Amino acid sequence: MTDQGSRIKIAIQKSGRLTDRSLELLERCGLKYSRGRDQLIGFGENMPVDILLVRDDDIPGLVRDEVCDFGIVGLNVLEERRLQFLAEGRDQAFRVVRALDYGHCHLAFGYPEDGPVQSLAGLQGRRIATSYPRIVQDFLQREGIEAQVIEFSGAVEIAPGLGRADVICDLVSTGATLAANRLREGETILESQAILIRTVREVPAAKAEWVTRLLQRIDGVMQVRESKYVMMNAPVSALAEIARLLPGADAPTVIPLEGRGDKVAVHVVCRENVFWETLENLKLVGASSLLVLPVEKMLP
Ligand code: ATP
Ligand code: ZN
Q1: Can you give the CATH number for the domain in which 125 is found?
Q2: What pLDDT is stored for residue 1 in this prediction?
Q3: In the predicted model, what is the mean pLDDT of residues 183-195?
Q4: Ligand nearest to the Cα of 74, by number
Q5: Which of 206, 223, 240 is the last residue before a domain boundary?
Q6: ∠ CA 51-61-207 to the nearest 5 degrees?
Q7: What is the best residue among 54, 55, 56 to mutate for testing ligand 1's pocket, by most ligand atoms within 8 Å of CB?
């Protein structure tokens, strides 16, 4: 496991909004790691997988240059970099593997509450402050709007107050920052969440087996989040109705109950959350002794 060439490298954000959930995902895949003294690398102790802790903006480039095999980054950063690489003549710099369902936010316009611009129609000829100039420019072009895009690396929301811009386009999750700066949330131009990306080229054969295992485990972790194991006793006659009531259920396991010809035990994995209403409806069709358990691990 000491051979660098056979170790998988994954870039994640060093410290920020995506850090905890990204580390948690890898830990739930079974990875145990120790951090080096400079804290920039997490060395996998039980898998040939190392974690590189970097600024999120650097992650698409690290995957493009094959310094890392995988990266986890917000779609907003990914899209901005994709447009940049495209402009530089690299049409495919990385492959999107899957959306990871955390780090949700959206890129939206913010209009000063008492300003002259209150909709897309009013943007013509105006100044827009944003940290995502390429995404905004791309949007404006598609909408046929000509406006001046001004790049801000942070604190975009204060740009109108400073007289530097007429409107902003920035990431929003709750809208509290916009409201605190007397900005009204406008149109969304990108819905974002954490995305797993990988290199365009296939990994070397020495890494292939662990790459497959890692991706399967990530799938497993994603699936178990909502999955539940449901057990109940039920009349044989109600089996069809029960199958209809259970959300995203696999084929149930049906086990005879000792001395009860008319009743069976039913065990089933549901791939969606099971709500109280579902249990109440199951009871109505004759199920009893209902038990819902969280699923710890899953390998299809
Ligand atoms: P870095 O130092 O790594 O460059 P950063 O300041 O660019 O950090 P963070 O603020 O930690 O980045 O956000 C990282 C990512 O988290 C964003 O790019 C975005 O995908 C996601 N995110 C989720 N909610 C929000 C939010 N409310 N505001 C900003 N980003 C959010
Ligand atoms: Zn950043």
Answers
A1: 3.40.190.10
A2: 45
A3: 97
A4: 1
A5: 223
A6: 45
A7: 56
**Residue 192 Cβ < 6 Å to ligand 1:** yes
Neighbours of ion ligand 2 (CB under 5 A): 56-57
Residue type, 232: M
In which domain, by residue range, is 255 found?
A: 228-294
Burial 72-90 (b: 16+ CB within 10 A, else e): bbbbbbbbbbbbebeeeee
The tens digit of pLDDT for each residue in 209-243 reads 999 999 999 999 998 988 999 999 999 999 999 99
Q: From ligand 1's centre to the CA of 132, what distance in Å?
A: 12
**pTM beyond 0.85:** yes
Distance 212 CA to ligand 2 centre (A): 29
CATH number at residue 277: 3.30.70.120
**Residue 55 CB–ligand 1 contact under 6 Å:** yes
Q: How far is the CA of 27 from the centre of ligand 1 (A)?
A: 21
Whether ligand 1 lies within 6 angstroms of the CB of 57 is answered as yes
Contacts of 113 (CB under 8 A, 6+ apart): 182, 183, 184
The first and second tokens of residue 9, run together, are 């490298």
Rounded to 5 degrees, φ, ψ at 207 are -100, -15
93 and 206 housed in the same domain: yes
Which of 140, 168, 191 terminates a domain? The answer is: 191
